[in-house]
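Friendly challenge for the regulars: who can give me the structure tokens for this chain first? No prize, just bragging rights.
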Amino acid sequence: MTHDERPRPEILDSVHPPGAPAPWPYRLRLAPGRERSVVRRHPWIFSGAIATIEAGPGARPGDLGLVLAAGGQRLGVAYVNPEIPLTARMLRWEDAPVDRDWFAARIAAARELRARLVAPDVTAVRLINGEGDRLPGLIVDRYADVLAVQCLTLGMARLEPLWLPELRAQTGARSIVDRSAHGRGDANLDRADGLLAGEVPPDRVVVTEHGVRWWVDLSSTQKTGFYIDQRENRRALGDLAAGRRVLNAFAYTGGFGLAAGARGAAAVVDVETSSKALALARENWRLNGLPDERLETVHQSAQEYLRGSHGTFDLIILDPPAFAKEPGHVARATRAYKDVNLWALKRLAAGGYLATFSCSQHVDTDLFQKIIFGASLDAARPMQWVARLGAGPDHPVHLDHPQGEYLKGLLLRATD
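First reply, four minutes later:
Bragging rights claimed.
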């Protein structure tokens, strides 16, 4: 049974006496035996785990609620949206306020982590990573002095008056822009892009990353404008690319290709279906003073290019968009990942390297590894598994919320 098929909990009117203020707009009581995941600090509560939802006067979807075990034990505070299957997301595991002071502490902890783990010369940073920073539904990326926000849940949107002033106060950002329309938010969340605070920023800003400079297009339809999560992988693969011929499939604005070129790749081919992104890839190349003759840009799908190309490459990088955006897409995604990796292996030179990624949350690490193994068998290319790749340290994942690990990658070397 899927989450969408599970029965919805009964929604009751408040039992508080008339005129007496309810301490929380909602009181959510779990079904018997369903408190285990909450006690273990998993932040998600689906409708099938809930017996009843008591709605106080004026309660709106997205408002806060006290979460109770079936026997009445107070488990903590969540925001509650009875209209969707993922009905509640935990904020605190105690009956305590969710106020500006609480948000101030959470944001300060997130900033301290980045200050310790991200080099000071890096100016594109994931500042808040949703559940990984105990702020479910809130993504904040910093590009120089601009913050790009994705508010992905109705509950976090209701709490904006508390977290937005703290973001501005603690970061000193010149501009805070909303990029929520480009994320996968609640079905009943209606949120458009726009300016949240500060000055209207330019359409593009320059950021630096391990000595490389990039234009970030804040009007882009991809994430908040850039793939910050691949920063450490760009550096590692850039170092590997020195003197090699590199294919950067699914290139977007040239991230991996530019990292390779900046560290001495003999030649780079960027393949991308978006002509706008491909033009920015060329601009990024020139921004770093690299010679035009070392970069070839191809306006074509990666799959078509790999099937039609007769050349080989010493390093191939596959970083496709999510092929499985919903649980029901996994079978189709499995075929797509296998196909593109099979053809990449056919284009890999002897002794060459393949860096392959999946950002599909619904394709876990074990399944992805099996897909790549199958592609290796079908391509008749024996491969060494050299390293496992993932998101950088500014994308923390809580051990009690493994679903937060969406990016997984493998670095392989051909041994034939």
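The mean pLDDT is 91. The chain has ten helices and 21 strands. Your move, everyone else.
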